[in-house]
Specification:
The protein is mainly beta. Helix content is about 0%, strand content about 60%. Strands 1-4-6-9-10-11-12-13-14-15-16-17 form a twelve-stranded antiparallel beta barrel.
Length: about 300
């Protein structure tokens, strides 16, 4: 996006078993939309954000020593604030951006739960907790109406976490994500093409001895600037796990997940008094899922530039 917002949103799919521990990605699928490749000018940008994901599974997922049977449902609400600082000086001839995003969340799980392969019991658990925290560095460049950005970000496992059937709002696994983004705006029609692609490298969850495999993600948005600050169009994302899960905790084997999503989105830029502000809303519906949760998500941000 033109004004950076990072979503820690659950992505999902179905299958005989789940790829990546608990079937969740640390990267926020759908977190990048319109103006994805644009790093804003020098200043400080504050972005409150909220997101809600609802999904289910057709296969088994393992949470430590607890198995959730097919038909489990999850509802996940997250809220946080992204703080982005863009200094006056350049790096590698481009615009540097540094950001941090602390989160809180609420999760609701309903499932048939079994321990150690024993008989299952229908249970529900819900609760609030801290989310994991992203820190990010990016550098952006532009050539006419083509904008592009490279980034590296790290996930700090600051979220509330317990093994088993508990309302964990963190994943307890550090990760590094590297990638890039671009935005191209056709000068006459104001048609806009955007994409952000990256690779996520997960570290082991020390509580479960589970090593999630490496993952590839692609967020994209195709839309039009209708003038008066309004841009709207079609958005989507694609996810593929590219190396298998390993470790003593990966009892379901080296299964690798996938999911695709498409939806609609828009953003509106204006001024509130003397403060430049951008409001964005996106909705995604997932399909073509394997070994992951499958559902839909709604994301909203409000960015204020100082």
């Amino acid at each position: 996006m033109k004004f950076l917002a990072i979503w820690l949103v659950l992505a999902a799919a179905s299958g005989p078993a789940l790829g990546a521990e608990a079937g969740f990605s640390v990267y926020a699928l759908g977190g990048s939309g319109f103006n994805a490749g644009i790093t804003p000018p020098a200043g400080t940008y504050v972005t409150p954000l909220v997101g809600y994901y609802a999904g289910s599974i057709d296969g088994t997922v393992t949470l430590g020593d607890v198995d959730l049977a097919a038909g489990a449902d999850v509802g996940f609400f997250q809220s946080g604030v992204n703080f982005l600082y863009v200094p006056e000086f350049e790096v590698l001839g481009g615009t540097l951006g540094l950001s941090i995003t602390p989160m809180i969340g609420h999760i609701d799980l309903e499932a048939n739960v079994s321990v150690g392969g024993g008989p299952g019991i229908n249970r529900e658990v819900a609760g609030w907790g801290l989310g994991d925290t992203w820190i990010k560095a990016q550098v952006g460049w532009s050539e006419g109406t083509f904008f592009y950005t490279g980034y590296v970000q790290g996930l700090l496992p600051t979220g509330t976490y317990e093994t088993g059937f508990f309302p964990s709002t963190g994943l307890n696994r550090p990760a590094i994500d590297v990638g890039g983004a671009f935005t191209w705006i056709e000068a006459t029609s104001k048609i806009q093409l955007n994409a952000q692609a990256g690779f996520t490298f997960n570290f082991e969850n020390p509580a479960t001895d589970y090593q999630s495999g490496a993952e590839f993600h692609l967020d994209w948005a195709f839309g039009k600037d209708f003038g008066n600050g309004l841009t709207a169009g079609i958005v989507g994302y694609n996810y593929r796990q590219i190396t298998p899960d390993t470790g003593d905790g990966a009892v379901l084997g080296d299964f690798m997940g996938r999911v695709d999503a498409v939806g609609v989105g828009g953003q509106y830029s204006t001024k509130l008094g003397e403060t430049p502000s951008t409001f964005a809303l996106r909705y995604y519906h997932e399909f073509n899922a394997e070994r992951r949760w499958e559902g839909s998500s709604t994301l909203a941000t409000a960015t204020f530039a100082f």
